[in-house]
Design goal:
Layout: H1 3-13, H2 19-22, E1 42-43, E2 52-53, E3 61-65, H3 66-70, H4 77-84, E4 88-90, E5 105-107, E6 110-111, E7 115-119, E8 122-123, E9 150-156, H5 161-164, E10 171-177, E11 184-193, E12 200-211, E13 215-226, H6 253-258, H7 264-270, E14 289-304, E15 307-323, E16 337-338, E17 344-345, E18 358-376, E19 379-397, E20 411-431, E21 435-451, H8 455-458, H9 485-493, E22 525-543, E23 546-557, E24 561-573, E25 578-589, H10 593-597, E26 600-604, E27 611-615, H11 621-625, E28 634-647, E29 650-667, E30 671-672, H12 681-691, E31 702-704, E32 706-727, E33 730-745, H13 756-764, E34 769-779, E35 782-791, E36 794-797, E37 806-809, E38 812-822, E39 827-834, E40 867-875
Parallel strand pairs: 7-10, 27-31
Antiparallel strand pairs: 1-2, 3-9, 4-5, 5-6, 7-8, 9-10, 11-12, 11-40, 12-13, 13-14, 14-15, 15-18, 16-17, 18-19, 19-20, 20-21, 21-22, 22-23, 23-24, 24-25, 25-28, 26-27, 28-29, 29-32, 30-31, 32-33, 33-34, 34-35, 35-38, 36-37, 38-39, 39-40
């Protein structure tokens, strides 16, 4: 707001130093001392060309220091962000295909693919995973970024598509890497949940080096190992119960009819191995096993007083594993089948107690960016190129391809997903004395590849068809070989009855590795596109008390057409302490190649009962036959209005926001599929699958696809306050952050595509209010940090697509406490507890959490319980 501060910051940027060097206070690499807590934090994002303080920025920006990040006991950047930023939320979804390993998040109530993620001001590449169902989000995986590599994080809570491009509808998160040329840190920490599981070990470090006389290199690395947790109970439902303490034990039609031919004692003994040793229940619920190695580097080299060559990049490998739903006898997967010799085969022959498929994901992520920036007269320039790649490779074990019968293996490689991006861009700033004019252009090429699995993971074996060996028809109708007369005689001796429609010879079962069928010829392929963009941005002090900016951007996509978006913003100083700010802008997001091309068949519970459910591309023949239309970009209108204040030791920002999103991208509610000719539309969908050549169409019970489903309005208020206090007993810093936000439909919703339950949960299933309150007190060589996370109440409707019953969930308080002792200038020891009072969300009471689950697994309120830890840090 003051011109001398503005131009000092601009001059610092244009000296050819890195952006993070331009604001050394905000991005200092050393751990903050208590005396530094009051230093004004500066943000790069939000106003191009001119770093500004969080209270002089025309749009809401949070700046998190390296110390803030280190104070959260987690190796997952997603959990760190959720702990520190109330409007950033995510959940743990144990049975969610790839979502078990790459968790979807939200900012201001919108999915993560509507938040643009930057590293050092450059776009971060997306993860390979497209979340199946719901918002179908595909965004960058923040878990690939180690906290040890970061000097700070900036969270711009405002639409910024006109400044930064597609995806920046909800906001922008900019991760600034450390840029130290010397010194470093090593941190070792470990922790465990109160329940005695989920043990976590984490070793991280950073070291700075000089490169010749004019360069620097900062290298960071992190090794993490986290064990699984178990928060469920033994599987016991009306259709199948394996809890010996329940009167329904082994009762119900499934067991009565299936176990009659098997030894019940053998089945009971086999239950212990149904989950191959992961806990004492057949189906565990909790966080998965996880291990990762993450590295990052950041480097710069001055080529003169006004030119710098820079580069940064990362490499990460991680592996996780989790379970799918328990397969009990008679569930459509474990069924009696007649082999070619007429003998009866059941998967119980391989898994005497039923089985729980185990899903493994190996993630590889790497990126590299380089550029040249500097100053030529009044013109500042930044010419850069970047490449990013993310791949997830799946393995499935402890399961079968039911259609292969006794020939089925029990371990499969169902395929892999990969996303890569290449971008070149040129950014410029021009000093117009009173104003800064920024402009630039970019070209981006991106692709999404689905690679095939091994043949056994997707092939349709003989038992996908009735009488596959011609035992009754005496014809080789499917090419699996005609049973010989001797085999037929054996079959009759074994009880074959061709006149009995219920004889196993007529039974059909699912195709592909059960739980996650592999990617076959229909699914594999590469989906690519390119885009070009040009933008202009002007900002400056209109008067001594009024700073304003305006931006416009044009982008053209090879698959989604072109969009022109704009934004205006400003901040007006009422007094030396108080200012008003606001913004108005439009935005857009083009559905990614992955969202357009992903295909998946997996087990879901659309009506509370596990069925094989198929997701098909909206532009493909299958989905189009089911009623889908081609996807188009989402567009938005963003409004913010707020107040900032700096009164003595109090810093306060209050901001209202409203995001009107049109043509919102979402999955439709699952549509039933049936082979019963009398089932109406469900049978028509089955015929559509057959006509499209879908393998195992007769085993698919539901279908869905992504579409531009509806319009919505997301609005709310963010409040952030910080107060610092000094006394003879030390320094104390109080921080309060709160978010109140709602998601509502804007206009009518097609209930045939988005049912009543989905509509209710969209508006009510997450807390509208979240708050983070902390106090840190420092005295001599000690400090204590106390943090309270608050979640407001929320509601959830029952399953089955209707709103016949609603459960109200109460508010929750999660309290964290950490103490730190500064042993000497080198060593620091911390110990603490996350969720000190071991709070859990309300248990499910309306049947949404079936199958051994106690809590809603998609709850953003953590359901893992208390966690204690210790951390030792060495600074050198």
């Amino acid at each position: 707001m003051k011109k001398n501060k503005l131009y000092t910051a601009i001059a610092s940027v244009l000296t050819g130093l890195s952006l993070s060097c331009a604001v050394p206070v905000a991005f200092a690499q050393e751990t903050e001392t208590p005396d530094e807590a009051n230093v004004e934090k500066i943000a790069v994002v939000g106003a191009r060309g001119a770093p500004r303080s969080v209270t002089s920025s025309p749009v809401p920006v949070d700046v998190l220091s390296a110390e803030d990040l280190a104070a959260v006991a987690s190796a997952d950047m997603n959990d760190i962000m959720m702990t520190l930023v109330p409007s950033y939320t995510l959940s743990r979804q144990p049975i969610s295909d790839g979502g078990t390993f790459i968790r979807p998040a939200q900012l201001r109530g919108l999915p993560t693919d509507k938040t643009l993620v930057l590293v050092n001001g450059k776009r971060r590449h997306r993860a390979a995973l497209v979340q199946i169902g719901g918002s179908g989000t595909q965004g960058p995986d923040l878990a690939t970024i180690p906290a040890s590599a970061l000097g700070s994080v900036e969270v711009l809570r405002d639409g910024a598509a006109a400044q930064y491009g597609s995806d920046a509808i909800a906001g922008v998160i900019n991760f600034q890497l450390k840029n130290n040329a010397e010194g470093g840190t090593v941190t070792v920490d470990m922790g465990q949940y109160y329940e005695g599981d989920g043990t976590s070990y984490n070793i991280s470090g950073n070291k700075g080096f000089t490169l010749g006389d004019d360069g620097w290199l900062s290298i960071s690395a992190e090794i993490n190992e986290t064990d699984a947790t178990l928060r469920g109970e033994q599987y016991c439902e009306s259709w199948a119960c394996v809890d010996p303490n329940d009167p329904r034990f082994l009762s119900g039609g499934s067991f009565d009819t299936t176990l009659a031919a098997y030894d019940e004692d053998e089945f009971i003994a086999g239950l212990a191995s149904a989950n191959i040793g992961f806990g004492d229940v057949v189906q565990p619920w909790g966080q998965p096993n996880y291990s990762a190695v993450k590295t990052f580097f950041n480097a710069g080299y001055a080529l003169g007083s006004d030119m710098e060559l820079y580069a940064y990049g990362n490499y990460m490998e991680s592996e996780g594993d989790g379970s799918f739903f328990y397969r009990y006898p008679g569930n459509g997967t474990i069924e009696d089948l007649r082999e070619i010799d007429g003998t009866i085969y059941s998967p119980l022959d391989k898994f005497p107690g039923g089985f729980t498929p185990r899903f493994f994901g190996e993630i590889t992520d790497y990126s590299f960016a380089t550029g040249l920036k500097g100053m030529s007269g009044d013109l500042g320039y930044d010419l850069s190129a970047r490449y990013g790649y993310n791949e997830i490779d799946y393995t499935l074990s402890n399961t079968v391809n039911p259609s292969l019968g006794s020939a089925s293996p029990t371990s499969f490689k169902p395929g892999s997903l990969a996303n890569d991006e290449f971008q070149i861009q040129a950014d410029f700033t021009y000093d117009l004395s009173e104003y800064i004019f920024a402009f630039g252009l970019s070209y981006m090429d991106e692709s999404y590849e689905i690679s095939p699995g091994d043949e056994a993971s997707y092939s349709d074996g003989p038992h996908a068809y009735q009488d596959p060996f011609g035992l009754c028809s005496r014809e080789d109708a499917y090419g699996f070989g005609l049973a010989t007369d001797a085999q037929l005689a054996t079959a009759i001796a074994n009880g074959l009855d061709c006149d009995d429609a219920n004889d196993p010879v007529y039974r059909t079962v699912g195709v592909g590795s059960n739980g996650f069928p592999g990617y076959g010829p229909l699914a594999v392929g590469t989906y690519s596109r390119d885009s070009v963009a040009i933008y202009g941005d002007v900002s400056g002090d209109i008067t001594e008390d009024f700073f304003a900016q305006a931006a416009v951007r044009y982008e053209d996509y090879s698959d989604m057409g072109s969009e022109l978006v704009y934004k205006v913003a400003g901040i007006y100083t009422l007094t030396e302490e108080v200012a008003l700010r606001g913004s108005y802008g439009t935005g857009f997001r083009a559905p990614t190649p992955g969202q357009q091309g992903t295909t998946n068949i997996s087990t879901r519970l659309p009506n509370g009962f596990p069925v094989a459910t198929g997701l098909f591309p909206a532009s493909g023949a299958v989905a189009q036959a089911l009623g889908a239309t081609d996807l188009k970009p989402e567009t938005s209108t963003n409004i913010t209005f707020g107040l900032t204040a700096e009164i003595d030791d109090l810093t306060l920002t209050i901001d209202y926001y409203r995001i009107a999103l049109e043509d919102r991208f979402n999955a439709i509610s699952t549509l039933d599929v049936s082979t019963d000719p009398d089932s109406g539309d469900a049978y028509s969908r089955y015929l559509a699958l057959v006509d499209a050549g879908v393998d195992g169409a007769n085993s698919i019970g539901g279908v869905f696809y992504f579409t531009n489903a509806f319009d919505s309005i997301t609005q709310g208020v963010d409040v952030v306050a910080t107060y610092s206090m000094e006394s003879t007993y030390g320094d104390t810093v109080f921080t309060a952050s709160m978010n109140y936000g709602t998601n509502k439909f804007d206009g009518a919703v097609d209930e045939d595509l988005f049912n009543a339950e989905a509509q209710f949960d969209f508006e009510n299933a997450n807390p509208e209010t979240r708050g983070v309150f902390s106090v840190k007190h420092s005295y001599d060589d000690f400090s204590v940090l106390a943090r309270l996370n608050y979640y407001g109440g929320y509601e959830n409707a029952d399953g089955g697509g209707t709103v016949s019953e609603i459960q109200e969930f109460g508010s929750e308080f999660i309290f964290d406490l950490e103490g730190t002792y500064y042993i000497n200038e080198t060593l620091t020891l911390s110990a603490g507890v996350r969720n000190l009072f071991d709070n859990y969300p309300d248990e499910d009471t309306i049947g949404e959490a079936c199958c051994g689950r106690i809590y809603r697994s998609d709850s953003i309120v953590d359901w893992q319980g208390g966690f204690y830890y210790a951390r030792l840090t060495a600074n050198f």
